[in-house]
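agent: user wants the full assembly modeled, not chains individually. Plan: 1) parse entity lines 2) check alphabet per entity 3) run joint structure prediction 4) return tokens. Steps 1-2 passed, two entities, 648 residues total. Proceeding.
--- entities ---
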Amino acid sequence: MNVLTSKDFLAGLVCVLIGSLVLVVASDYSFGTPRRMGPGFFPITLGTLLLLLGAGVVLSSLRTHEKLPPLNLRPWLVIPAAIIAFAWLLPRFGFAPAGLAVVVLAGLADRNANKLALLLLACVLVPAIWGLFALVLGVPIPFLIWS
Amino acid sequence: MDLLESLQLGLATALTMENLLYCLLGVSVGMIVGVLPGIGHLAAVSLLMPLTFHVPATAALVMLAGIYYGAQYGGSIASILLNLPGTASSAVICLDGYPMSQKGRAGAALMITTIASFVGSCFAIIVLILMAPPLAQLALSFHSADYFSMMVLGLVAAGSISQGRPLIGLASVVLGLLIGLVGIDVNSGAMRMTFGIPELFDGVSIIVIAMALFGVSEVISSIGKTGDGANKTRVTFRSLLPTRKEWRESGWPILRGSGVGTAVGILPGTGGGSMASFMAYAVEKRISSKPETFGKGAVAGIAAPEGANNAAAQSSFIPTLTLGIPGDAIMALMLGALMIHGIAPGPRVVTENPELFWGLVVSFLIGNLILLILNIPLIKVWVKILQIPYRLLFPIIILLICAGVYSLDRSVMDVLLVAGFAGIGYLLIKLGFEAAPLLLGFILGPMLEENLRRSMLLSRGDFMVFLERPISAAFLFLAALLLLWVIWGSFKPRRSTTENN
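--- prediction returned ---
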């Protein structure tokens, strides 16, 4: 079996990579002594631990043969994109366009999305949620920014 | 302060208009998310956490806790009617609840689970009332070394008592600890893991992590997988009444389930009541005189687990409130809410914030009473809610997440972090990593480091301090035992499969 589709092998590899990254970044922080630990003591210990755990998972993956389950690819790409669109639109144009964008875009993550229903949903939801945050809870979020 | 006075104070706090309102709001939201498959109580609590910024600490906790135990009530409804667990802890209810529903006893099953939920909760609340003050008193004598070891035990338990892959579970804990490091180190003022991004200097907010992992990642994996309300079960009010035989068969199992659930809920790392309900089911099946009826609609098979998961939901507050050590992810979120309100979790909460502690405890009783009263008359509403299609539900969830995260600090960076953590988190979960231990590591990380540093300073750099103090040594011994057991366990089944090959 190809190791690149083995769930455990990839998981172990991720641990090893993150562990090494942490060790590289944390090598700049002073380690200190056990009595007076520097800011580097804890990250370096954790990075090493993650590296070892990752190595253990990689080793054990040679014996398990579980394949990586298929990804829910469309939602995985669409949902974060919708959130990023919200973050980009909100400070420039206000809550209404940002909220509309996130509801409709996120809704498209479902293959059988009904665009009209999503638009209607957004028209009801966006003012309601803005009202909840801006009017009830008093968070100053502009509904619409002109110009 | 004696017990009666404390309860009086609690009653006075819980019965203020504000707290009653938040209690009602919490349990209703909990009930709804419990009913709906594809959105769990973790997602709901993270979703509503931003709202609690704007209310006092007691009201905030009353509401968040209400969501949690309310969801335990609602979870069994989808299990019984659709054979789809509304929450993870009610998965076991499907085994006998759905067969009962097929036999036309859905109404009786719903009634029995409601009563079991109520009895289980009350049982655990009484244990909480009796146990918490002495436990907090005991914990006052704990040193930083004891705390360190206790957290190590909690983290090892959370990582290893997971779904079969203890090494990855532990790696999830370490990942959480590492994310907890991001920001300024309080002891030295050094920046750690911020990659020069100014928004990260204060660290990552627990709400960002929780929303990304329990809200958005959950949505990503549920889209297209959650059935769109194909439920045609009719529940009439007359069918709600269990027969005399059904009453008789549910009495003792409910009590036994409550006991099992209360005990399991106190233990660290037992995650959201699912362990409790599975154990109660196993116990019931073993001691039953007719074990062959289990899985075919045995009343005991729904009564005991339902009592157990509600009892566990309440008793898990015992270590959280008295020791400041959360047993699972939802308790970690509760601690997060406390810290947001500037209350340091630990044994002092009981004595220094008595109105918070006792108000919360009494609100549990009130909340459970509300749930008992709400559940039965509104049964038709819950059945209707089950018919909301998920494709209309999840855009609402995403919008609420965006608005909620932004409202924290009005920071666009926080919203972007949610998108990033959700994308990465979804991949990690696919690879077998687990969100709950990660969150626990994230919340405990700073406390763990702080206590480690303090004990090493006090012991002048001698690591033996952790073994010389008996309490600390006992916790570390338990953690080591757990690790050994888990490693042994993870090698055993593998050996048998290789033999088969």
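agent: reporting back. The two ends of chain B are 66 Å apart (CA to CA). Chain B has one domain: 3-229+238-500.
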